Amino acid sequence: MKRGAALAAAAGALAASVAVSGPSSKVAWTVETVRLVRSGDAAHGKKLHEDCAGCHGDAGVIDTPDVPNLAGQDALYTFKQLSDYKEGTRGSPIMGEAAKPLSEKDMADLAAFYASLPSARAPAAVPAQASAVVPLARLGDGARLMPACDACHGARGAGDSGSYGMPKLSGQKFDDMATQLTTFRSGERANDVYRVMRDVCKHLTDAEIAGLAAYYSGTEGKPPAAPTPAK
Amino acid sequence: MAIHPLERRWFVVSILLVLVMGLFVLYTAWAAGIHPPSNVEAIDSTRLHLTPEFAEDHLGVERTKDGTVVARIVMARYMVHPQEITLPADTPIVIRAASADVLHGLHVAGTNIGTQVVPGYVSEVRTTIRFDRVAAIGTANPDGSVTVPLFCNEYCGLGHQSMWGRVRVTKP
What we know:
The complex is a heterodimer of chains A (about 230) and B (about 170).
Chain A (H helix, E strand, L loop, with lengths): L1 H19 L10 H8 L3 H8 L3 H4 L18 H13 L5 H7 L4 H13 L17 H6 L9 H5 L20 H13 L9 H6 L4 H12 L14
Helix pairs in contact in A: 3-7, 5-6, 5-7, 10-12
Chain B lengths: L4 H27 L28 E4 L5 E8 L2 E3 L2 E5 L3 E8 L4 E5 L5 E4 L4 E7 L2 H7 L1 E2 L5 E7 L11 E7 L2
Parallel strand pairs in B: 2-5, 4-11
Antiparallel strand pairs in B: 1-2, 2-3, 5-8, 6-7, 6-10, 9-10, 10-11
């Protein structure tokens, strides 16, 4: 019995190690893929969005704390996340199912639709909780080999059209942002090519995660409890 | 054929200048080991993470069967992957670097490792790190190794100054 349990555990560990090896995302920004996303049909995307509106809101904005706002999001980023959910490189039971029936063209159309919506912007004032992390967000930290968050995500997360697939962070929710940073830190979320976010987040303290979530969301909150280990 | 004396003097001066510059190039090439890497090898930079060689889990330092030490590095705005590597000193090493996006430059302080990392190509440098040279400028570690910075020396965008890594050089 004990032996059987140990064997099952070993098999589980093996399955987990097989699951994590391989590329962290199958999306590559080839000319064809970038063209496909840039030429997405927002009108068709709007029709597809009817199935998503329940959680993400009619206009891509919703009050639910741990559901991201999609309105105004960078189209390449949305496309990549949908593709990663479908391929399983970003794990989520709900989004995995939701993305399964989508074709590449559907994902490009949805991404174009969300990019066309006006985004929820963070309030201009920086919350007090974020004041300590402003230098980190703007300049990075050389001692910990951390690049500035704003270098890729744009000034205060406004986005950077020159980088492929970097999300806008401005106007996201405190809880969702804190969850993403925490799960990158633990490695539970691992669809960042070349471990970019995992390598940055592994240095972050709980207080810094809360500060960064406050900086980009414009609202204060509590850092989330440690997430459950990756399945 | 008549040559004006002033013209003759200019002729001598210009030939001397060419010789001096030639000697300078030869001196740096031989004494300091500085010469342009000449590897021409194409790769699709957009699909770099899907190639076997530059896959995420395959980066870093590997000792091949014939004893050569190969370090594989990917440079992408604005990080060097992996961020920290360990290389043996006074041992022949091969650096293989590729860019996932734009033009970068790979430079390791205290060594002659310096190459452009051009998107679409694999940059390769074959060299031997001299321990005395890195020890002269690097940070000494308690275990006797020395850490020197690795950085991007080709302006690549707004986060260029963040593109740092560390190379720990161990005694052979």
